[in-house]
């Protein structure tokens, strides 16, 4: 279907509202099969701009959630900017925006709670969503690491809300996000703490994530992430400004 959609995005056909049904079906396919096509999703949002009567809030919410799976890239901002401001305050889009804000501020505790209460059914249909979020490196400077990772074990399979049921793999996308944050902030971390950050996963599941990212489990219950000092790279900056390049400026100042 990707090839078919690609043909629909060429030339004037990109703005043909008759193609919207196929494009919306393609959004559902991305959610169910853990694929992602930003260009196609932006085309859907553009058609909603041109044809407000065809707007679908549920499809828009799925597009935004899929954009979150690609953090820290700017996909979510691109999609958000193409939605009418009045629509941003409507459900379920407003809930997704709240979820995004929690991720952007690294407030993982509130994120998991909000996910369990409000968004589970929609995200369940997006394959790999949680892994994409866990993979993301999205940590603001000055944020207290202790407060960021002070998570309470939460099972996302409990009390599912209808909104996220259609998105398969959301939890794993979040785990990718968390792993990237851990990799950028820790040299070592207790394995039980890592399990908690990953959504209260089992020992075996935590070991799979450790292996996936090339970390090392130690006998004292810690996981060795990396020597952060090794990631520091110095760079010599040489400024080359010739006399000819500033002569005109100096002459004009006389």
Automatic annotation (TrEMBL):
<dbReference type="GO" id="GO:0006446">
    <property type="term" value="P:regulation of translational initiation"/>
</dbReference>
<dbReference type="InterPro" id="IPR033464">
    <property type="entry name" value="CSN8_PSD8_EIF3K"/>
</dbReference>
<dbReference type="GO" id="GO:0001732">
    <property type="term" value="P:formation of cytoplasmic translation initiation complex"/>
</dbReference>
<protein>
    <recommendedName>
        <fullName>Eukaryotic translation initiation factor 3 subunit K</fullName>
    </recommendedName>
</protein>
<dbReference type="Pfam" id="PF10075">
    <property type="entry name" value="CSN8_PSD8_EIF3K"/>
</dbReference>
<dbReference type="GO" id="GO:0003723">
    <property type="term" value="F:RNA binding"/>
</dbReference>
<keyword id="KW-0396">Initiation factor</keyword>
<dbReference type="InterPro" id="IPR016024">
    <property type="entry name" value="ARM-type_fold"/>
</dbReference>
<comment type="similarity">
    <text>Belongs to the eIF-3 subunit K family.</text>
</comment>
<dbReference type="InterPro" id="IPR016020">
    <property type="entry name" value="Transl_init_fac_sub12_N_euk"/>
</dbReference>
<dbReference type="InterPro" id="IPR009374">
    <property type="entry name" value="eIF3k"/>
</dbReference>
<keyword id="KW-0648">Protein biosynthesis</keyword>
<feature type="domain" description="PCI">
    <location>
        <begin position="36"/>
        <end position="240"/>
    </location>
</feature>
<dbReference type="GO" id="GO:0033290">
    <property type="term" value="C:eukaryotic 48S preinitiation complex"/>
</dbReference>
<keyword id="KW-0963">Cytoplasm</keyword>
<dbReference type="InterPro" id="IPR036388">
    <property type="entry name" value="WH-like_DNA-bd_sf"/>
</dbReference>
<dbReference type="GO" id="GO:0016282">
    <property type="term" value="C:eukaryotic 43S preinitiation complex"/>
</dbReference>
<comment type="function">
    <text>Component of the eukaryotic translation initiation factor 3 (eIF-3) complex, which is required for several steps in the initiation of protein synthesis. The eIF-3 complex associates with the 40S ribosome and facilitates the recruitment of eIF-1, eIF-1A, eIF-2:GTP:methionyl-tRNAi and eIF-5 to form the 43S pre-initiation complex (43S PIC). The eIF-3 complex stimulates mRNA recruitment to the 43S PIC and scanning of the mRNA for AUG recognition.</text>
</comment>
<dbReference type="GO" id="GO:0005852">
    <property type="term" value="C:eukaryotic translation initiation factor 3 complex"/>
</dbReference>
<comment type="subunit">
    <text>Component of the eukaryotic translation initiation factor 3 (eIF-3) complex.</text>
</comment>
<dbReference type="InterPro" id="IPR000717">
    <property type="entry name" value="PCI_dom"/>
</dbReference>
<dbReference type="GO" id="GO:0003743">
    <property type="term" value="F:translation initiation factor activity"/>
</dbReference>
<dbReference type="GO" id="GO:0043022">
    <property type="term" value="F:ribosome binding"/>
</dbReference>
<dbReference type="InterPro" id="IPR036390">
    <property type="entry name" value="WH_DNA-bd_sf"/>
</dbReference>
<comment type="function">
    <text>Component of the eukaryotic translation initiation factor 3 (eIF-3) complex, which is involved in protein synthesis of a specialized repertoire of mRNAs and, together with other initiation factors, stimulates binding of mRNA and methionyl-tRNAi to the 40S ribosome. The eIF-3 complex specifically targets and initiates translation of a subset of mRNAs involved in cell proliferation.</text>
</comment>
């Amino acid at each position: 279907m990707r090839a078919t959609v690609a043909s629909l995005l060429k030339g004037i056909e990109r703005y043909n509202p008759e193609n919207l049904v196929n494009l919306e079906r393609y959004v559902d396919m991305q959610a169910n099969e853990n694929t992602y096509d930003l260009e196609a999703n932006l085309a859907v949002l553009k058609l909603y701009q041109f044809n407000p009567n065809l707007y679908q809030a549920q499809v828009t919410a799925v597009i935004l959630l899929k954009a979150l799976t690609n953090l820290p890239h700017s996909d979510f901002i691109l999609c958000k900017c193409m939605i009418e401001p009045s629509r941003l305050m409507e459900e379920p889009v407003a809930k997704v925006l709240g979820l995004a804000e929690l991720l952007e501020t690294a407030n993982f505790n509130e994120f998991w709670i909000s996910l369990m209460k409000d968004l589970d059914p929609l995200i369940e249909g997006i394959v790999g969503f949680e892994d994409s979020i866990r993979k993301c490196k999205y940590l603001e400077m000055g944020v207290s690491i202790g407060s960021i990772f002070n998570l309470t074990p939460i099972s996302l399979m409990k009390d599912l809300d209808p909104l996220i049921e259609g998105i398969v793999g959301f939890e794993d996308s979040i785990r990718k996000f968390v792993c990237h944050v851990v990799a950028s902030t820790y040299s070592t971390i207790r394995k039980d703490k890592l399990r908690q950050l990953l959504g209260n996963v089992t020992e075996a599941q935590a070991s799979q994530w450790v292996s996936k990212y090339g970390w090392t489990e130690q006998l004292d219950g810690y996981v060795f992430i990396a020597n952060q000092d090794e990631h520091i790279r110095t760079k010599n900056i040489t400024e080359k400004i010739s006399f000819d390049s500033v002569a005109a400026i100096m002459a004009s100042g006389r």
